[in-house]
Design goal:
With about 325 residues, this protein is an alpha/beta fold. The chain has a single domain, classed as UDP-N-acetylmuramoyl-L-alanine:D-glutamate ligase, CATH 3.40.1190.20. About 35% of the residues lie in helices and about 25% in strands. The protein is built from 10 helices and 14 strands. The strands form 2 sheets. It has a 10-stranded mixed sheet, sandwiched between helices. Strands 3-2-6-7 form a 4-stranded mixed sheet. The longest helix is centred in the last third of the chain and has 17 residues. The two termini are about 35 Å apart.
């Protein structure tokens, strides 16, 4: 079983609009509401691939109830800790029309303010769930009120039980998480630049050098998602770059989560890194082609997977 952690749960609302007029009125052609948050998206992808998964985290208020109801409807096993504060919503405005020219704007609420008691109850719950897990995925932002090193504590708790952890976070929570010795951290290029502490030079550091800095700080392996340019894996056994054969147009929201789902599968199956990186990159691209975060387009995945090039990086 793969356990996914989403502390800043969300109800994702997607408005599909024609040509957006940012200074006037817009008519929404369709509305989609579904459970969201990065760990929830990972759980959706893993469930669609037929893998046993349990989604956990914090859920509060009517919004939290709506999210849990949607997960149950989707067949995603969920076991969240209830809190008094209201879970957040996110809004995506997606232009209708050909995917090649479609634009998307994402608006994220900060999330509920959580209490020390909320976090203590969740930590106890997490300790019980992790005993039955083969791997843990900790994803997304921390809600207000959570200390910046909270992910580090969760990662260390799992590691003490021999359960490998993937962390997909940004900024201070990611930097602190390194002390929990996660098996994999998965920043994108911008998050990598914010997290890596390197000497100032006249030229920007290579992604591989910045990823190696995160390894030295505590991560066993670092995978950098590079969008249309593929992905980079820096591991104890070597470094590899995945190259996309072509760009996939669509909605990039959730692409990194699908990539993380592929990394989690590779972790529990002990897949060799080149194959692991190829599958994860293909899943990320297939998520771009799907209209909603947490979904992947199976036809795009099957077409792209054999075409993704993997090359060693020195």
């Amino acid at each position: 079983m793969i356990l996914t952690v989403t502390l800043n749960l969300a109800l994702d609302v997607t408005y599909v609009v024609g040509d957006v007029d940012w200074n006037g009125m817009n008519r929404v052609s369709s509305v989609h509401r579904r459970a969201g948050g990065k760990g929830v998206n990972v759980a959706r992808v893993l469930t669609s691939l037929g893998h046993e998964v349990v989604a956990t985290g914090l859920a509060g208020g009517r919004t939290g109830e709506d999210v849990l109801a949607d997960l149950a409807l989707a067949g995603v096993a969920a076991d969240f800790t209830p809190i008094a504060a209201e879970s957040r919503s996110t809004l995506v405005v997606s232009e209708a029309g050909p995917s090649a020219s479609r634009r998307n704007a994402l608006f994220n609420e900060p999330g509920p303010v959580v209490t020390e008691d909320d976090l203590m109850r969740f930590t106890r719950h997490f300790a019980g769930l992790v005993r039955g897990a083969d791997a843990v995925v900790i994803s997304g932002s921390l809600p207000p009120g959570a200390p910046p090193d909270f992910y580090a504590g969760l990662a260390a708790m799992a590691a003490e039980r021999g359960v490998p952890v993937i962390v997909d976070a940004d900024g201070t929570p990611l930097r602190h998480a390194l002390s929990g010795r996660p098996a994999i951290v998965k920043p994108n290029a911008e998050e990598l630049a914010r997290a890596a502490v390197l000497p100032r030079t006249a030229t920007p550091p290579r992604s591989a050098d910045a990823a190696e800095a995160l390894r030295r700080a505590g991560a066993e392996s670092v995978v950098v998602s590079l969008g249309a340019h593929g992905a980079l894996a820096v591991t104890p056994g070597g470094s590899w770059r995945a190259h996309m054969p072509r760009e996939v147009a669509g909605n990039p929201t959730g692409a990194g989560d699908a990539l993380v789902a592929g990394l989690a599968l590779g972790l529990v199956e002990a897949t060799p890194w080149p194959d692991r990186l190829r599958r994860a990159t293909a899943l990320g691209a297939a998520a771009v082609a799907a209209p909603l975060a947490g979904d992947v387009d199976p036809d795009v995945y099957l077409a792209l997977h054999p075409e993704i090039g993997i090359e060693p990086v020195s």
